[in-house]
Amino acid sequence: MENNEVLGRKGPSRRAFLSASAVTAVAAPIVSHAAPAGAAPAGAAVAGTGSALTGRGPSGDLRALLRQVDPARIQATVLRLTQFGTRHTASSQTDPVRGIGAATAWVFEQMQAIAATSSGHMTVQKQTFVQPVSNRIPVPTTITNVIATLQGTASPQRFYVVTGHLDSRVTDVLDFTSDAPGADDDASGVAVVLELARIFATRQFPGTLVFATVAGEEQGLYGSTFMAQQMAAAGNDVQGMFSNDIVGASQAWDGTKPDPFTVRLFVEGIPTAVTSSQISIMQAAGGENDGARRLCRHQHHHAHLERQPRAQPGQVRGVIRETTSPDWTDVINVGSVTTVTLDIAKDNVQFGLRAVDSAGNRSPVAFPGVVTS
Ligand SMILES: [Zn+2]
């Protein structure tokens, strides 16, 4: 585990880890009135405007998909990965049994076998580059990501990315010869990536899904950074990314017992790609990027996200929360419009817009007027 693992943090990628911005073109500014004199307190203002936002459980499709998750297969993958002895980034690239090279070859084989079930919709590549010398890379080192891409059907330029890191380490990050089985950190994440790829491969989704094992993580996030740079250079619209690192740990780093139902969510406060005029809107509305709020709370699942619709007129909802609330609480059906005036005080609440399709699938929430992609 490397702290602050962020896809695109160092590169030109427009959106960081789990940054979502889906609603897009219809997200014209919500024009809000200033609070009238004697306005009710924030709670009352909201309650009088929208209806309570209720959670949405997994759809039947998603439940069927989740039932296919095979714990025994995940466990077998973790065990197999520990048998490479070490997967240290500087370990052997050529030894057929021990080291990062053998582990990479094995993952590539697994991915290829999975892709073979996809009727040609999933492709697998080894993404290799040479990382120059740095403080944790004593000699120029070949680093290889293994990337399975399930091509989207309707909007393939829209990407969701799932990763785990293949490399492992012992306490001394430069020690590449000692055994470093890395069952939890991060064979567990790789096992999740492979299992999700297996389950998703036989299905098709509107957007493109990427299942990747990244390497060079313990040396400084090199694999994921390179992948993010490549995706940015290719113009991929990465709307969300799930990094699986130490999955299912029974203890947190500080010895506390983690809440198994919590997913950590990282969003750029000000998205990298916004223009100065868009920043002005954000400043005027008093908000940052709320796009990914609810993106993966409550065990929202990847498939669920992928089913989320793009906005079209007639399918737009406004969502509202108190400035002190961590989550959206109220919803207003905006209807077939691209601009709407809400009679509530913008000083009291945060706004967002999302698309909703006829099946009730909801897009991630976009900040009004900011996202234009
Ligand atoms: Zn890790």
User: What series of H and E elements makes up the topology?
Assistant: EHEHHHEEEHEHHEHHEEEE
| Total of DSSP H or I helical runs spanning 4+ residues | 9
Bound small-molecule species = zinc ion
Main beta-sheet strand count, sense and barrel state: 5 strands, mixed
What is the radius of gyration?
22 Å
Overall structural class, as computed from helix and strand content, comes to alpha/beta
Estimated helix fraction: 10-25%
| Unreliable residue stretches | 3-48, 291-314
Distance between the termini: 33 Å
Mean pLDDT: 77
Q: Which strand order does the major sheet show?
A: 3-4-6-5-7
Tell me what the structure shows.
The protein has nine helices and eleven strands. The chain has about 375 residues and is of the alpha/beta class. Bound molecules: zinc ion. Zinc ion binds next to helix 5.
